[in-house]
Structures are given as structure tokens and as C-alpha cells.
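## Example record

The block below lists the input lines for one assembly entry, exactly as stored, with component labels intact.
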Amino acid sequence: MAGRNCLEANDWICGAYVSSRAQDLVDATVQHVWITVVSVAIGVVVAFPLALVARRWKAVAGPVLGFTTILYTVPSLAMFSLLLPVFGLSAAVVVTGLVLYSLTILVRNIVAGLEAVPEDVKEAARGMGFGQTRQLFQVELPLALPAIMAGLRIATVSTVSLTTIGAIVGYGGLGNLIYEGMSSLFKAQVLTASAICVVLAVAADLLLLGVQRLLTPWTRARGGARRRVRRSVARVETGEVAA
Amino acid sequence: MEAIPQAWTWLTSGASWSGGDGIGVRLGEHLYLTVVCLAISCALALPVALVLGHLGRGGALAVNISNAGRAVPTFAVLVLLLLSPIGQDGQWPTVIALVLFAIPPLLTNAYVGMREVDRDVIESARGMGMTGWQLMRRVELPLAFPLIMTGVRSAAVQVVATATLAALPGGGGLGRLITAGFARQRTYEVVGGALLVAGLALLIEGLFVVLQRCTDPLRHRRAVRRGRRDDSADANPSGPFKRWVTE
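Predicted C-alpha cells for the full assembly:
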């Protein structure tokens, strides 16, 4: 088709757009990726202690889960707007909002994953003389990993998609291009940025799935005898579906 | 930080509620869009999910739709619809986007709810000679009710959120107050609009929690069973997370 004319014709798919604005696309994608990675990373760092506290003191569990659910209910545009007077027009508005959203999913899945570790396995660890910290890191966390990773995948995919709303304060990664394209009715820009966004989400999901497979080699061992020995592990593994 | 008291003054002054683009009109638009779109999406998604759940078919579809709903940015869909031929038709791009994003939670929750009904109960009902329709109406639906309502609740909150975003490409609703605030560089309007949106979302969430409790066809029996389960909590240390381990 008309190679050069697609910009003038405002076609949806336009090679000339991609080649002439490659740098814009790369910059927006890089911003999108760092906002997502920073937000999810901070989310994990904050969610872990919260989940451990919620698990240790049952009285705290209700308020912690309730509060994160309330945060999750607030629509994204409102969340970013409410953070605006705190941080001004900066990337901190977007990152803070995204961290708050990821908390809900992460805390819930970490708590559920840890709760699902079978009591007999924990007892065995205690019987072997494991202290609480060692039990947490060497027994409970590995067994809870499938559920935790499922939460991490959901949180990451949602964060990739929500980052676009950051365009309202100018830090939306690919969302900025969609926002610009919306004002100038530039179809190729909107479609290309949206497509890259979906590709990013799918790629992040697959990447985390790969990491999960690497970290939990036992979940792939489905042999008969082994399965019986590892029954407790296999039972936790099914938590992945429920997540 | 002075934006918050200013936002309060703005929210409580009568002048900002009146007029063609005042809070009153925007709130009306938002509620109207929410109710209409939630009704449309329930009418589309629930029958499909209930029948698929009853037949035990299309589980992959339910899961994939909910994953896709998460991966595709709402904002992108709104703008793509605006630039498409439907974009010229007033509210249509907004309505379509709202319905599209309300369907995944409805479909997934209703499907899972129907599938999670105890197989033994279904066997007994069949053994009593119930037809498929009777089984669905008198056994599966009442048992799946809490999850179906959870889906409706998530969908309602999702619709409120999406309707807010619809203001970015020029749709109506409360989000318009936020975008107008940004355009005029009045932080207190942005914050005031955001407070209204957040309040509305929380109100709707709360409303559906209450509605779910009051309309659950098995509410009395569930309360009894829950009481009994609490008594045996010691025997079953995994408590509410038992589902995770056994299923």
C-alpha cells in the first residue's frame, strides 16, 4: 500500500510512523517499563512485612486486608488526582498510586500462600530444629511461592495497564503517546502505543511464569511415586489455580 | 497541601454544584452511565456464564477473558473507540468500553461459582430426578449466589472507574471535574472531583456488600453453618484458607 502516505491518510497501521518516531516509541516504552518495575518492586518490599504482620497478629489481619481493599476500590484517575497535592506533577504520583494498587493483590496472595503451607510440614520443620526465621525462608516461602508468584503476575500485568493513566500527570509511559494521539486524532500513534502496551503486559507475565518455573522445579515433577512423597507440596501447588 | 481544605470549600459551595458542567450534572451522568452499563453487561454476561458453568464447558474462555481484561489498558480502549467510526456517535464509545470491562469479572465469578457447587450435592439433586433446569434454578444458583454477587460488585466498581476515565477522551461523568481541574490548573478541583469519584466507588462497593447479605437466598442457613465452622476452628488450623489446600 501507499508507504509514505499513511501518515497523511491517518491510517491505523503505519510503517512510516513507526520508523520516523522510533525514538519516541523507545523512550515511552522505557519510561513505561521503569515505572512498572519500580512500582511492583516497592509493592513487594512493602507487602511482605504487611503480610507477615497480618499473619502473626490475627487482630491486624482484618484492618490490613480491609484497608488495601479500600485502596483497590478507588478508581485510578481519582487515586492519581488525590496524590497530586502531595507530590505535585511528578513520577512519584504515578509510582505511589501503582504501589498502593499492587499492595492489595500482593498482600492477599502472600498471606494465602503462607496459610496454605500444610501444618505437618511446618511441624516437621520445627521437629528438625528450624527456628522461625529459617522455617519462614527455607520451608514456608518456597512452598508459598506458586501462590505468591501468581499474585506477582496479576499485580504486574495490572500495573502495566494502569501506568497508561499516569499520562494525566505526564508520566504514563506509552500512555503519554496515547494521550497525545487522542488530542491530535493520530490513529497510528494510538494503535501502536496500545499494542506495545499489551505486548509488554504479556511479555512480563510470561517472564514471571518462567521465573516461577525456575524457582519451583518440584512443581514439574509429576511422577507417581514422587507425587506421593511430595503430596503436601503438590497440594499447595494447586493454590495457583485458586489465585 | 492547602488543596484539600480548598477542595472541601469547593465541594460544599452551592455554585459548584449547579450549572451545565456543575457537580450535580456530572454526578447524574456518572450514575446513569453506571446503572445502564452495569445492567447491559449483566444481561450479556450472566446468562452465558451460568449456562457454561452449568454445562461445565468453556472454563478456559472464562479465565482467558479475565486475563485479557487485565492486560488491555482501559484508557487505550477508550481512545481507540473514540478514533474508530463509532467515535462520532456521542456516548457510544463510553458505553461500549464500560460494558467490555464489566464483562470479565461477571463472567469469571459466575462461572467459578457454578463450578464450585459441591459435586455430591449435584449428584443427589440428579438422583432426586431434577431436570437440568430445576437443578440450575433450585440448587446451583442459590449455592453460587455469593460468588455471582461478588462478580456483580466488582463489575459495578469497575464501571465506576472506567466511567471516570471516559472523561479523558471527552465523555461525561465525574471524571470531567478532574480533567477540567487539570485544564484550568486548579488542584482543588482535581482533588474535589477525585474525592467524589472515590466516595462514589466506595459507596457502591458498600451498597453491593449489603445487598449481597440481604438477598442471599441461603443467608439464614449460611449463618448457621458459619457458626458451626467457627466451633471447629481448632481442629482445622488452616481455617478460611482450607479451600486452597484441598481443591
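Chain B is about 80% helix and 0% strand. Confidence is low (pLDDT under 50) at residues 229-247 of chain B.
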